[in-house]
Design brief:
Number of helices: 17
Order of helices and strands: HHEEHEHHHEHHHHHHHHHEEEEHHEEEE
Strand order of the largest sheet: 1-2-8-5-3
Shape: globular
Structural class: alpha+beta
Radius of gyration: 22 Å
CATH superfamily: Cytochrome P450
CATH class: Mainly Alpha
Distance between the termini: 43 Å
Number of domains: 1
Helix content: 40-55%
CATH architecture: Orthogonal Bundle
Bound molecules: protoporphyrin IX containing FE
Largest sheet: 5 strands, mixed
Strand content: 5-15%
Number of strands: 12
Length: about 475
């Protein structure tokens, strides 16, 4: 296997000659972003450059180039303004949408609640949500079966998990339904607006505006009402192990003055909004694909189940026990390799002229980091389309740094990665020890489709049979 990466010294990487201001290229990406990326890589290699609508675009497909960009040159790039504008119109100014000092301050204040040592405090909340979610949607009598839309199930479950982790709040059925519909509406609208040059102001009657504003108000009411309830119950914080308790008590040690040491009410609300959004659909997507893969590969489901039965039995697992489950974690990692929820990181924008792998990247250029393509590259993953959890078992050959990026890399790496890892393993433990999963006779997994995150193009139906 050739594992060399092509590093060139030519000024600008090769790429397609675009016609009509790049409109055909834009249309191809809108129609099939993964296919368009594959075509670029196959035709031009690890670094690609083209122009669209008067702008320079770069794609970097190799782990070295990506790490160079995200880690070594982190100060030379920001997240592209357009997707951030789309996000901040809904979720406000928060750790995901800000840059520079404003981002650094928010990240410092939010981070302690996501450190591995905080996870033990959340595990009880995640367990409660999982037990309730399985009871509500799946059969409870041995031998009984039900066939369900897996993604609706995992999304409702992870939404409940994040509400409990953030606020210790168990959502009512009506709240869950409302939040579910609102999230879907905002995702579809977000995907649509990404391809617009600008989102008009809220008073302008643009397509999808009314539904978007209703959905935004529904989520904001849900989140703000939880913060208000907590503030009214002053003095109660100390007993809570949830994220809001940490956030209300948080202080920025590096703050220049008292006012900037804590988050304002608005910042707390905006950050909780974005943690809710970023913290459930991604996790739901991984669990959806993992359940599909377990149904498709019963030989691996058996390995995971045996490990869980031996190590945990019927008990509720602790965070340490979860992190020691080799097959469980390897199968989840492999699901995230095949189906990374964020198949492209946010586009980056070059703040100044810079060289990446010897290639010239001009100030103002837009850069795509195509995670899905790196995860499906035979140089790092032999037989890349095959589900093979062994790749992530302790004695497996080392995977090059930068070739596995489900949570991104560099200073803007996912803030919730430890939480997501614990949550996904915990849900997997409960599911695998209670249920057998099966696809319909002869059915394959649906194709993936980018819908903000990487969802199944057609509904994934799986039959759950209670063991
Ligand atoms: C399997 C689940 C998850 C995946 C695959 C995932 C993926 C990612 C990725 C790839 C990024 C970086 C994007 C970029 O650099 O362009 C990111 C950032 C972020 N994630 Fe996650 N995420 C997951 C779960 C979570 C959870 C559970 C939370 C919070 C509760 C969360 C909150 C965030 C936030 C706030 C950011 C922005 C961080 C910053 O810019 O400083 N994510 N996530």
């Amino acid at each position: 296997m050739d594992t060399t990466v092509s590093i060139n010294t030519n000024k600008v990487p090769p790429g397609p000659q675009t016609r009509w201001l790049g409109l055909p290229m834009l249309r191809a990406m809108q129609k099939d972003a993964l296919g368009a990326g594959t075509q670029l890589r196959d035709d031009f290699g690890d670094a690609v450059h083209f122009r669209m609508a008067g702008q320079s675009y770069y794609y970097f497909f190799s782990p070295e180039l990506i790490r160079e960009l995200l880690v070594e040159h982190m100060d030379d790039f920001i997240r592209h303004e357009r997707p951030i504008e789309v996000f901040s119109q809904v979720y406000g100014d928060n750790v995901l949408t800000t840059e520079g000092e404003r981002w650094k301050r928010q990240r410092r204040i939010l981070m302690p609640g996501f450190l591995p040592k905080r996870m033990a405090g959340y595990v009880g909340l995640i367990t409660d949500a999982t037990v309730d979610g399985l009871q509500a949607s799946l059969p409870q009598t041995s031998g009984a079966s039900t066939t369900i839309d897996v993604d609706s199930f995992t999304t409702t479950l992870t939404m409940d998990v994040i509400l409990r982790v953030l606020f210790s709040h168990k959502a009512t059925e009506a709240e869950s339904r409302k939040a579910f519909d609102a999230t879907r509406t905002l995702e579809h609208q977000g995907m649509r607006e990404l391809f617009w040059p600008k989102t008009p102001p809220d008073w302008f009657p643009y397509p999808g505006r009314t539904e978007k504003l209703h959905a935004k108000a529904a989520l904001k009411n849900l989140i703000q009402s939880q913060i208000d309830l907590r503030r009214q119950a002053a003095g109660d914080h100390a007993e809570k192990t949830d994220y809001l308790a940490m956030l209300l008590a948080a202080h920025d040690e590096e703050a220049q003055n008292a006012a900037s040491a804590t988050l304002t009410n608005e910042e707390i609300c905006d950050n909780c909004m974005v943690l809710f959004a970023a913290g459930h659909d991604t996790t739901a997507t991984v669990l959806t694909w993992w359940i599909g893969l377990m149904a498709r590969h019963p030989e691996y489901a058996a390995k995971v189940r045996q490990e869980v039965e031996e190590a945990i039995g019927d008990r509720n697992p602790t965070t340490d026990e979860l992190s020691r489950l080799k097959w469980t974690n390897a199968s989840i990692k492999e699901a995230m390799r095949l189906y990374p929820p964020t198949p492209n990181l946010f586009f980056r924008r070059a703040l100044r002229d810079v060289a990446i792998g010897g290639w010239h990247v001009s100030k103002g250029a837009s850069i795509n980091i195509p995670v899905w393509h790196v995860h499906h590259d035979a140089r790092w993953y032999p037989e890349p389309e095959t589900f093979r959890p062994e790749r992530f078992m302790p004695n497996a050959p080392e995977i090059p740094r930068g070739a596995y990026l489900p949570f991104g890399a560099g200073p803007r790496v996912c803030i919730g990665q430890h939480l997501a890892t614990i949550e996904m393993a915990l849900v997997a433990v409960f599911l695998i020890r209670q249920f057998d999963f099966a696809l319909a006779e002869g059915a394959a997994l649906p194709k993936p489709k980018i819908d903000m995150v990487l969802k199944p193009e057609k509904t994934l139906q799986v039959t759950f049979t209670r063991r």
